[in-house]
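Here is the promised in-class demo. Please do not try to memorize the tokens; focus on the logic of going from shape to residues.
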């Protein structure tokens, strides 16, 4: 009897020991992190479609291309067919991706000049807020802290820029009008862009009369996309696509500040960028923002 009791006890202890080891080796669920309403979490993207899209409304705060692996990569920009004038201008431009910070003459990389439209949408629209007003839609971009007004009151686009005393001045964001094609597609037309800005990071130029058209589609409550094209007979032999980009709803509707600070840019160039020297033999840059296929 004592021997049977001892044997049973040893078996019970063995079972308890192995059970404890198994429990210790089993991944335990961690309590969900409490997210502050004052912080932007790029990877905290809405799950699912959130229900049907509201009609005629792009309002909200959105995570864009490159902000999180949860954002679809979209479609990059096409390679434009350049006119002789555009080719001449391109030959004088040196991008950071090909020549390095020390060898580039990109005004944004060198002086912190605004990227301007459409380049800021193609490459740096990782997050933005959109607000709807009675006569316009306002896009507030994270990068640079810039805003852009798209008028919906039926006014025509201006056509005279910088030719006379009474002409309109070109601007970094251009002049934009928009209309709802239906309940879920918002079309924007923009012109009057400052010619100092580049269309893409490789230095692709544009004239002040370039015409950019965007088609914003609210797919569902948590998802929207934009497809962009540009037409500029002075610089391109035919219109071309600037790509298609996706955006997802930010759950806490907060984005952080992301500015190009001139003093910080100067400090970087003085201490690191310029001493490193140029590198003119880098491969051609990818056109359009977001992630490359397979990139996380």
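The designed amino acids, position by position:
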């Amino acid at each position: 009897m004592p021997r049977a009791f001892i044997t049973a006890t040893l078996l019970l202890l063995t079972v308890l020991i192995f059970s404890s080891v198994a429990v210790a080796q089993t991944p335990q669920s961690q309590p969900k992190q409490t997210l502050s309403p004052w912080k932007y979490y790029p990877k905290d993207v809405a799950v699912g479609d959130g229900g049907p899209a509201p009609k005629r409304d792009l309002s909200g705060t959105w995570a864009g291309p490159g902000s999180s692996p949860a954002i679809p990569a979209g479609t990059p920009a096409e390679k434009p067919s350049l006119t002789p004038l555009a080719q001449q201008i391109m030959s004088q431009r040196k991008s950071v991706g090909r020549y390095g910070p020390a060898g580039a003459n990109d005004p944004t990389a060198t002086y912190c000049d605004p990227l301007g439209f459409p380049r800021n949408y193609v490459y740096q629209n990782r997050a933005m807020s959109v607000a709807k007003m009675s006569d316009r839609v306002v896009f507030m971009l994270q990068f640079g802290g810039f805003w852009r007004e798209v008028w919906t009151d039926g006014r025509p686009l201006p056509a005279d820029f910088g030719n006379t005393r009474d002409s309109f001045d070109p601007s970094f964001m251009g002049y934009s009008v928009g209309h709802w094609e239906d309940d879920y597609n918002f079309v924007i037309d923009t012109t009057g862009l400052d010619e100092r800005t580049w269309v893409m990071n490789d230095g692709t130029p544009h004239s002040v009369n370039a015409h950019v058209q965007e088609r914003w589609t609210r797919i569902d409550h948590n998802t929207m996309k934009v497809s962009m094209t540009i037409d500029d007979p002075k610089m391109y032999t035919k219109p071309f696509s600037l790509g298609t980009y996706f955006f997802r709803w930010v759950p806490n509707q907060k984005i952080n500040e992301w500015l190009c600070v001139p003093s910080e840019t100067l400090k970087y160039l003085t201490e690191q960028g310029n001493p490193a020297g140029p590198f003119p033999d880098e491969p051609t840059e990818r056109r359009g923002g977001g992630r490359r296929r397979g990139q996380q």
